[in-house]
Amino acid sequence: MKRRIGVFVLAVSLCACQTPLTLDSLPWPLTPKPEPASAPPSEQVPTAALPPPEGLSTISGELRAIPLHWDPLLISGVAGYVMERSQQRAGPYRQVADLDGRANTAWVDRGAGLVAAATTGEPATLGDGETYFYRVRPRTLQDVLGEEASAVVTGTTAVLPDPPEELCAYSHQPRSVPLSWRASADPNVDSYVIERSPTSQGPFESIQELEGRFETVYVDLDLGDLRVFHYRVRSVNRAGGRGEPSDPERAVTKGEPLPPVGLRVVAQGLGANELTWDANVENDLIGYQLFRQRAASDTQEPVGSLSESVTRVVDREVGAGESVHYTLRALDSDGLESDTSGPLEVTSVDYEIESEVGPEGVVLRWRDRSNEGWVHARILLIRALGPTDLGTTSGALFVHTGVTPGNLYRYRIVLETAAGRRAPESRLVEVQVTAR
């Protein structure tokens, strides 16, 4: 026994000096080691009396991979190597690679022999930041393993990437939140996942994945006005491993302008309502929009779009004695619109027509508005086939002569300026001429 150990030391020394060992130089035969006679045939595992490989080493920090290398056993009878792996130093160890050739002394473990995930069916890989234990055995051409394995070494895969740094979420933008962060220094990172939640405690949902390590800006669009959101970002490595999220950052979208207040009537004339309101306080306001809704309609009609400095307007598109509702809203430079103000109901100025049947015919009277520039009045007789112009008068009275007793007459009055501009027509006035 002592003689054999001495020869083995000599053989190892020769290997270290680049002198190949040969079976003839070894004092024992390369035959399977016999199992005890008492062992059942199913438990007999033949082994060969080959020296264990030396110099086994790993490279840690690679992405879901562990490269291994060892010194060759350049002796006849060695036909290859078998790599064994375990997740514990004490084992059990499992064969994960069978390499042909005594000089084939490098191998990369990418998860060989691991069971694929049942949910995805994708090939199994090594984990992120996981440590594994390895040893290697020589193998003969007859697939008999050496009875001794190499010394055990460890290798650790790259850990999941750190969260991105300097995440910023910018507030007070119209219906959007711009985000930016510093690019990861980890070369294994090739994308980022952006997550959003209405509260800092979550739950967070993934809203976007950006491809590229240097893609470090994103704008979250189509958000509401004056909404609060919390954002965080994860780095993702090239194997799809997601790191821990960054600390959440809070942002608030820009609020729409306040609804205008104080809408009121300050003056009225025939066919005209003059309105005013209190100016809004926003510093980026660009104007107002005034709307009119007539009593018999569900439609909002635009009265006008006004600049931010205008808080007074005259609506000249109303009928005499017509009831309308006005609403007003404000707009800012980002296109945000306020809610409309509360409706203001206004009844416009009427002609205040009075009618009677006199000895000479139908007498029509109305309020004199010559001081407002209405110097003429045109009288229209409304018939089934259209109106008939009965003539004009410069006063506030008109007598329709030649009427027939028993007939119903319908009239409208239209005031005019000296330049010929017409006021809105009056409401329809009906007069029944009774028989004498």
Q: Strands across the major sheet, in which order? A: 5-4-7-9
CATH superfamily of the largest domain: Immunoglobulins
Average of the residue pLDDT scores: 88
What integer value in Å does the Rg equal?
A: 49 Å
Main β-sheet description: 4 strands, antiparallel
Keywords:
436 residues, mainly beta, Immunoglobulin-like, 4-stranded antiparallel β-sheet, 30 strands, rod-shaped, disordered N terminus
Task: Give a short synopsis of this structure.
The protein has one helix at 2-16; strands at residues 47-48, 57-58, 66-69, 80-86, 94-100, 106-109, 131-139, 145-146, 153-156, 168-169, 177-180, 189-197, 205-211, 217-220, 228-237, 249-252, 261-269, 272-278, 285-294, 301-307, 312-315, 323-332, 344-347, 354-358, 361-365, 376-383, 386-393, 397-401, 408-416, 429-432. By secondary structure, it is mainly beta. The protein has 4 domains: 2-156, Immunoglobulin-like (Sandwich); 168-252, Immunoglobulins (Immunoglobulin-like, Sandwich); 261-347, Immunoglobulin-like (Sandwich), CATH 2.60.40.10; 354-432, Immunoglobulin-like, CATH 2.60.40.
Describe the structure.
- The chain is mainly β.
- It folds into four domains: 2-156, Immunoglobulin-like (Sandwich), CATH 2.60.40.10; 168-252, Immunoglobulin-like, CATH 2.60.40; 261-347, Immunoglobulin-like (Sandwich), CATH 2.60.40; 354-432, Immunoglobulin-like.
- Helices cover 3% and strands 40% of the residues.
- The strands form nine sheets. Strands 5-4-7-9 form a four-stranded antiparallel beta sheet, with no helix packed on it. The chain has a four-stranded antiparallel beta sheet with strand order 13-12-15-16, with no helix packed on it. A four-stranded antiparallel beta sheet has the order 20-19-22-23, with no helix packed on it.
